[in-house]
Amino acid sequence: MVTSHYSPQAENKTIWVFLEQQDGVLEEVSLELLARGRELADQLGWTLEGLLLGQHVAGLAPHGIACGADRIWLAEHDLLEHFTIEAFTQVACQLLLQKRPSVFWLGATPNGRDLAGRLAVRLRTGLNADCTDLRIEPREGLLVCEVSGFGGGVLAMIEMRNHRPQMATVRPGVFALPHPDPSRVGEVISMEIDLDPAIIQTRVIERSVGAGLNLSRVPFLVTGGRGMEGDFKILEQLAQLFEGEVGATRPPVDEGHVGRERQVGQTGVVCSPKVALCCGISGAFHFVVGIEKASLVIAINSDPEAPIFEYADYCVVGDVHEVLPELIAVLSGQQVTYA
Ligand SMILES: Cc1cc2nc3c(=O)[nH]c(=O)nc-3n(C[C@H](O)[C@H](O)[C@H](O)COP(=O)(O)OP(=O)(O)OC[C@H]3O[C@@H](n4cnc5c(N)ncnc54)[C@H](O)[C@@H]3O)c2cc1C
C-alpha cells in the first residue's frame, strides 16, 4: 500500500478549501465549499481554512473570511499570477505538507480538477472526484464522500482511512452559496514559499475567457430533451419570457441542436434554479442529478409513465409541440417575479 507523506496521526483537525481565483474574483464554487466547511467545522469544533494562491490577491482574503473561513493561508508570487499547474502544485504541496490539514477540498473546475489530481499523486493520497455530498464522521474525523457510480445505479460513500489529506472535488452548484458576513473575524497569514522558475514548463501567452454562460445559478431553466425533436427555438422564446436560460439533455447536445455548455446533468452542469421546466425529457438519473436542487420542477411529457414525473412537482402529460405554444401564448405579456 502506498503511504502518504503524513499519516492520520500527524494531521491537524482542519478543513482546507482551495480558494480558486480568476482575475481578482473568487470562484463561486470555492465559496460554496466554505459554506459547507463552516457547517461541518462548527459541528466538529474544527477550524476552516482557505488556501489562496496568486499575485496581488491579498484583497480577496477578507471575503473568504466573511464567507466562513477562520484563517487564510496566503501565498503571493510573480509566478503565481496566472494558473500554471507546475507552480500551483509546487506551492500547494509545500503548504499542505507544512500545515497537514485533515481534509482538502477543491472545486471541480478545469483548474481545480487539474490541481487536485496532481496533488493527490504528489502527496500519495486518494482523491474523490465530483462528490455529491461531503460529511465528516465525528468519532474518527473521517471524511465521508458521496459519489455516484455505475450510471447512477450506485450511490457510494467513500472514506479514506489511512491517507492524508482526505481530498475531494465538488462541482459548482452542489452546495449553496454562503451569505457573507463582513463582521466575521479571521486571520490572514502570508506564507514564505520556495518556487523554482525552472520547474514551470508552461508559459501563459494569452488568456481568452468564454462568453461566461453559467447555467448553475439561473433562476429559470428551460430544459429540452430528445422529445423536442431539435426544436429549441420555442424553448428560447419561453426562456426569454422569464429571463431564463435554455439547457438540454445529452441527446440534443450530441445531435448538435444545442451547445455542449448547455448540457445539464452528471457530465454537464449541476443547476439550482428556482424553477426547472423539463420538456420532452424521460428523467434518466444522469440528467436528474443536474436539476434535483431546483426549488420547483415542472415536467411535460407525452408518456404518463415517464420517470421524470417522479421528480416533478407539477406534471403535464401532453405533446410538447402542442403544450408549449399554448403556454407561451398565455404567458406572453405577463409580469413574472420570483419569490
Ligand atoms: C456516463 C453517462 C453520463 C451521462 N451524462 C448525462 C448528462 O450529463 N445529462 C444528460 O441529460 N444525460 C446524460 N447521459 C445520458 C442519459 O443516461 C440519458 O440517456 C439522457 O438523459 C436521455 O435524454 P432524454 O430524456 O432527452 O431522451 P430520452 O430518454 O429518449 O427521452 C425522451 C422523452 O421524451 C418524451 N417525448 C417524446 N416525444 C414527445 C413529445 N412530442 N412531447 C412530449 N414528450 C415527448 C418521451 O416520452 C421520452 O420520455 C449520460 C449517460 C451516461 C452513460
Describe this structure in words.
- The chain is an alpha/beta fold and 339 residues long.
- It starts with 11 loop residues before the first strand and ends in an 8-residue tail after the last helix.
- The chain folds into two domains: 8-199, HUPs (Rossmann fold), CATH 3.40.50.620; 215-331, Rossmann fold (3-Layer(aba) Sandwich).
- It has eight helices and 17 strands.
- The radius of gyration is 22 Å and the shape is elongated.
- Bound molecules: flavin-adenine dinucleotide.
- Flavin-adenine dinucleotide (FAD) binds next to helix 6, helix 7, strand 16 and helix 8.
C-alpha-based Rg, rounded? 22 Å
Helix content: 10-25%
Q: How many β-strand runs?
A: 17
Give the ordered list of helices and strands.
EEEHEHEHEHEEEEEEEHEHEHEEH
Strand order of the largest sheet: 7-11-6-1-4-5-12
Structural class: alpha/beta
Tell the overall outline.
Answer: elongated
Q: Mean pLDDT, nearest integer?
A: 93
CATH topological fold name of the largest domain: Rossmann fold
Instruction: Characterize the biggest β-sheet.
Output: 7 strands, parallel
Number of domains: 2
User: CATH superfamily of the largest domain, called what?
Assistant: HUPs
Query: Tally the helices: what do you get?
Result: 8
Spans of at least 5 consecutive residues whose pLDDT stays below 50 are none
What's the CATH C level of the largest domain? Alpha Beta
Calculate the terminal CA-CA distance, rounded to whole Å.
53 Å
Per CATH, which architecture of the largest domain? 3-Layer(aba) Sandwich
Name the hetero compounds present.
Answer: flavin-adenine dinucleotide
Task: Determine the strand fraction and express it as a percent band.
Answer: 25-35%
